[in-house]
């Protein structure tokens, strides 16, 4: 479903210079406002719009962030006002659960299949990384759509159901034997013992897929290493929608400093946004809102998409 409003959306991705300026501003404001954070839009780049190629904050996006900020006041949430966003006309929260449900943009769908898959005369494809023995999202997706669904998790028991295929391995970086990650719960480096991992390129090749309609990644810290390698190896993410939870700041290779974490966050966002993805929904993880340490950030659920064909 499309409207004239969606057709007017800027189709051009942000430049690398623009993103560097945005994150530079975000880091400066973070340090200056750490002890004075409030939920007003003082971080909005309205005053710089004529000097920097920054797209205006859309009213729907501003309202959504203000609503989230009222629930979860934290110094690490302000930078969302700077991120490129696109309005999904028909978005829905999939899954009747608090932690585990994800936002899907139905603008890509026609009936129970995606427009892309219909044109290719095939089924839509959903990859879901991270389940923790909970198939809330996947069950709801199977109810709503007729997609080929794959669940990946090396830490949970096998979720048997004829409506999806379960795989007992996770998504990792280049070296599948390295399974260290940043544990947002303990705020320390951790290791997933005896956890088989594969990178996304290998997984898609083995399963015979060239494109994903929906990619869900909720892997408690392993996303940083995974996405770094995705863009090093694949250059572009072959997916139309990305449901991504970011936990903590980053797994640093040298130390666990805030500066190192912000640098990793910059790289991840730069790769995703320059790849043409824009945010259509932001939802803070309420369990992490109480963090007040400067080295902690709120875990956040992002729903991103490329524009569907009009």
Radius of gyration over alpha carbons? 19 Å
Number of helical elements: 8
Q: Estimate what percentage of residues fall within beta strands.
A: 15-25%
* Shape annotation: globular
Instruction: Determine the N-to-C terminus distance.
Output: 9 Å
Order of adjacent strands in the largest pleated sheet: 7-6-5-12-13-15-14
Low-confidence parts: 1-11, 28-53, 250-258
The averaged pLDDT comes out at 76
Q: Describe the biggest sheet?
A: 7 strands, mixed
Count of β-strands: 15
Task: Encode the helix/strand succession as letters.
Answer: HHHEEEEHEHEEEEEEHEHEHEE
Q: Which structural class do the helices and strands define?
A: alpha/beta
DSSP helix fraction: 25-40%
Protein architecture, described:
With 310 residues, this protein is an alpha/beta fold. 28% of the residues lie in helices and 21% in strands. It has eight helices and 15 strands. It has helices at 4-7, 16-33, 59-71, 115-120, 136-144, 200-207, 223-233, 258-274, and strands at 91-94, 102-105, 109-110, 113-114, 124-129, 147-152, 165-167, 170-171, 180-183, 188-191, 197-198, 212-217, 239-246, 278-284, 300-305. The strands form five sheets. It has a seven-stranded mixed beta sheet with strand order 7-6-5-12-13-15-14. A two-stranded antiparallel sheet has the order 1-2. Strand 5 (124-129), helix 5 (136-144) and strand 6 (147-152) form a beta-alpha-beta unit. Helix 2 packs antiparallel against helix 8 (258-274) and helix 7 (223-233) packs across helix 8. The longest helix is centred in the first third of the chain and has 18 residues, at 16-33. The radius of gyration is 19 Å and the shape is globular. The N and C termini lie close together (9 Å). Residues 1-11, 28-53 and 250-258 have low confidence and may be disordered.
